[in-house]
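DM from R.C. (forwarded with permission)

"hey, sorry to bug you on a friday — could you get me a structure for this? deadline for the figure draft is monday and I only need the backbone to look sensible"
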Amino acid sequence: MVEKATITVIGEAMLELSRGEGDGWNLRYGGDVINTAVHLARSGDHVRLASALGADPMSAQLRSQWEAEGVDTSLLIAAQGQLPGLYAIETDATGERSFHYWRSEAAARRMFDLPESAAMVAQAAQSDLLYFSLITLAILPDAGREALLTLARKVKERGGKVAFDGNYRPRLWSDAATACHWRDRAIALCDIGLPTLADEVEMGEADDVADAAARWGAGEGREIVVKLGGDGCMVEGVVVPIPQKLTVIDSSGAGDAFNGGYLHARLAGASVADAALAGHRLAGWNIGRRGAIPAKDADAPY
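My reply, with the result:
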C-alpha cells in the first residue's frame, strides 16, 4: 500500500456569514486555503491546516468542524486572547458575490509570531506538498511573509513540492505593485502555479492567457494552470474547457474547489489534462450550491 502524501495548507480560515432564506444569516466557515483543504480531505488525502485561531468557543467549533471533515488540525495554533477573522458574503441574482470583512486583528496574522510557531514551522517543513496563496501572503506582516517563503524553501530542500495560488484581493494590499512583488517571489519557489487570468489582468500583469502563463514561468520547469472562469483553464498551452454547461447558484470558492480537484488528481497520478477536468467537475458541483464549502451530497465528485 502506497503511503499518502502529506499536504500542508497554510493561511487564514474564517467564520463565514452568508444569506439564508428570507432576511436571515447562516454561520459557516471559509477562507481560500481551508476551502481547498476540505476538498482534499473529502477526496481522501492527508491534509493538515497550519494557521492560528483564537482560544474562544467559536474557534473551537471551527476546529471540530474541520476535523469532522477529515482535516488534520495538529498544526493549528490556539492563540490566547485572539479571535478568528469574520466575513459576510452576499450573492446577486447571477450568483456573483460580494464580501464584507472583519479580519484586521485576526489570529492568523500572527501565525509566525506565537510561542508555538517554531514547532508549527518545523512540522510543516516535513510536507510532501505545501500549498498557500497570495491571500496568505496578504494577511501577514512582512516578517511573516519572509517566514512563509523560508518555509517553502525548506519544503523544497527536503524534496517536497510547493503549490501557489495567485488569489488577488486588492483591498488586502496597499497597492498592486506590492502584491506583484510578493507574488513574484512566491512564483519563484512554486512547482505548481494556479493563477486566475482575471486576477492577473486586474493587477496589470497580463492581457491574455498566454501573457499570464508566461509571467508565471510556464515552460520553465513549473506546472502552470491558468484558470479562465467559465471558459475552463489553460495547462501546457492547451485550453481545457469545462465539460458541461453549469448553473451558477453561488460562485464562492469555485477556484478553491478547482484547486482541490486538480491537486488531488495530480497526486493520484493523473495527467495535467485529466486533473484539469477533475478540477472543473468539483468546481462545477461547488458553484451549483450555496456557501464556499457546500455540504457533501450524493452528486459530489469525490
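R.C.: lifesaver. The longest strand covers residues 46-54.
me: no worries. The mean pLDDT is 92.
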